[in-house]
């Protein structure tokens, strides 16, 4: 996804999150293009590798430059 931009509605190839400006500003809210909120999506990604289990078939492993700084 494009770093530093919001509301592009791009879909992340690593977790399948759709970039939505509203959910970035309201990370607990689900609905809109993503059924679960950003915080829950991040927890899901840590647990099983995608924002929701049904999207596992669409995601790939992150490239080194896509990993968050430790």
From TrEMBL:
Residues 5-66 form the Cysteine-rich CPCC domain. It comes from the Bacteria. GO terms for molecular function: hydrolase activity. The keyword Hydrolase applies. InterPro entries: Cys_rich_CPCC (IPR025983). Keywords: Hydrolase. The keyword Hydrolase applies. This is Hydrolase. It comes from Hymenobacter lutimineralis. The lineage of its organism: Bacteria, Pseudomonadati, Bacteroidota, Cytophagia, Cytophagales.
């Amino acid at each position: 996804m494009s770093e530093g931009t919001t509301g592009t509605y791009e879909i992340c190839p690593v977790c399948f999150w759709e970039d939505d400006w509203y959910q970035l500003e309201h990370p607990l809210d689900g609905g809109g293009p993503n059924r679960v909120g950003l915080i829950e999506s991040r927890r899901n990604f840590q647990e099983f590798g995608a924002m929701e289990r049904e999207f596992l078939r669409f995601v790939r492993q992150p490239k080194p430059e896509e990993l968050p700084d430790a």
